[in-house]
Amino acid sequence: GKARHFKWEVEYMHWSPDGEEGVVMGINGQFPGPTIRARAGDTIHVELTNRLHTEGVVIHWHGIRQIGTPWADGTASISQCAINPGETFLYRFKVDKAGTYFYHGHYGMQRSAGLYGSLIVDVAEGEKEIFQYDGEFNILLSDWWHKGSHEQEVDLSSNPMRWIGEPQTLLINGRGQFNCSLAAHVSNSSASPCKLRGNEQYAPHILRVHPNKTYRLRIASTTALASLNLAIGNHKMLVVEADGNNLQPFSVDNMDIYSGESYSVLFTTNQDPSKNYWISISVRGREPRTPQGLTILNYHPNSASKLPPSPPPIAPRWDDYEYSKSFTNKILALKGSPTPPPTHHRRIFLLNTQNFIDGHTKWAINNVSLVLPATPYLGSIKYGLNAAFNRKSPPDRFRPDYDVMRPAANQNSTYGSGVYMLRFNTTVDVILQNANALRANVSEIHPWHLHGHDFWVLGYGEGKFTEKEEAKFNLKNPPLRNTAVIFPFGWTALRFVADNPGVWAFHCHIEPHLHMGMGVVFAEGVRRLGKIPNEALGCGLTGKMLMNNLHN
Ligand code: C2O
Ligand code: CU
């Protein structure tokens, strides 16, 4: 593989992602950040300089397993110290597997602030893609609020909590329209039509195609909150990749995508070539208060400003969970993909609840709401700095009599920074158990994302998981993924092998939920690691340790 070098500077800048000017986190003056394109086997070097004036920063490479380089995972308090203003950190890691990935901030709520971009890995030099296509596009989906991420953070942490509400705008490659609608001419809403010249920061990213060709559309979602449904008007999509893993291809009219997920679909431009078509994204799983995000599939040689003559695709009803489940159940591994070990060594049950701690609304896992320590776990575990975090491991199960269908009898929870220590090379099952939130009859969607690994998704079910359900696990062709959703009042079963030395976050990818404690930390094989680069350790107790080493 090749070495690919990048020099990036992160800064706040004025930007109009949706036509209203606000402040975003940009990289080298761009929003979203630059797209990284590499080949499997390449080594990426990103020299990241923090040009923010008053806060730290880190960048996480979502979906890259960081085999042998856990200090490059870019998680503040977990894999490294946040990079201070004016400082530079070198992210050096191998992209070992082709696929559609992205990167984003992983400190505070910097992902909500717009710190993200795409990371595309092509097959290794000399290898062939297993799917055939004539061209490709890449879209990164996000959601945007007019209130800044710092104010959102204060709102979420206050007592009583002030919820951030629904996003103002959905963005496709960082572009959306708040003040106007591309579809004004075909909708009966009062929205004014967009008068765009095409060079505005919020002008849509147009997909230009030729008739009768097949294209690959890469899609990743880094939304802070929204679950989305994507459609290309009049065109079918063949889903072929999820989170960097090949799928048994299946055809759909529209597809769901949750925060943290990525897909590739193939579509053929076999429709009336005298027209252009909509590409739309719509909110799922929460009552939508955000207009559809739109862009145009532009058939050559039509003008890109020729708008489709009919309204954008209609999304399935936001609360039609059966629809979402039927899509999710179609996702299976391509024949010949790695299959899971037939049995597990350890099974961890994780109950997802909404709670109060001293009047503050929190999310908790087995009644522990995650707070991150001042010293990153990777260094504190490696060097045995026992005072750095809660030494007691969080529980592997929750009370068997817990009623997941009702608000908790005791709504109080506790903070914790404990770690699930996994024996190296063992097979771990995780049963994510959803439950009723604080309000009766409410249970939300949570897309869970694991760092450092892909996992097999063995199955989904309704209500409380019982050992009997194990008979229904799919051990034959379960998809390998790094993100899997739990549906309201349901459970999701995952399996992975703890074979990647490091400390890995496992959390809900909804940014406010993570911020309110919805995550756990896994550690495995840390003592096998060689030297951790000093620049990942210069804070907290590992920072003190480095100072002492200097003085001795
Ligand atoms: Cu994309 Cu820990 O997240
Ligand atoms: Cu969540």
Automatic annotation (TrEMBL):
Main subcellular localisation: secreted
Keyword Nuclease included in the entry's annotation: no
Entry EC number(s): 1.10.3.3
Subcellular locations according to the entry: Secreted
Top-level EC class: oxidoreductase
UniProt xrefs under PROSITE patterns: MULTICOPPER_OXIDASE1, MULTICOPPER_OXIDASE2
Key words, A-Z: Copper, Disulfide bond, Glycoprotein, Metal-binding, Oxidoreductase, Repeat, Secreted
Start and end residues of each Plastocyanin-like domain: 10-122, 137-301, 394-525
InterPro entries cross-referenced by the UniProt entry: Cu-oxidase-like_N, Cu-oxidase_2nd, Cu-oxidase_C, Cu-oxidase_fam, Cu_oxidase_CS, Cu_oxidase_Cu_BS, Cupredoxin, CuRO_1_AAO
Entry cofactors: Cu cation
Superkingdom classification of source: Eukaryota
SUPFAM superfamilies xref list: Cupredoxins
Reactions catalysed according to its record: 4 L-ascorbate + O2 = 4 monodehydro-L-ascorbate radical + 2 H2O
Family: Belongs to the multicopper oxidase family.
Subunit note: Dimer.
Name of the protein described by the UniProt record: L-ascorbate oxidase
Source species of the chain: Rehmannia glutinosa
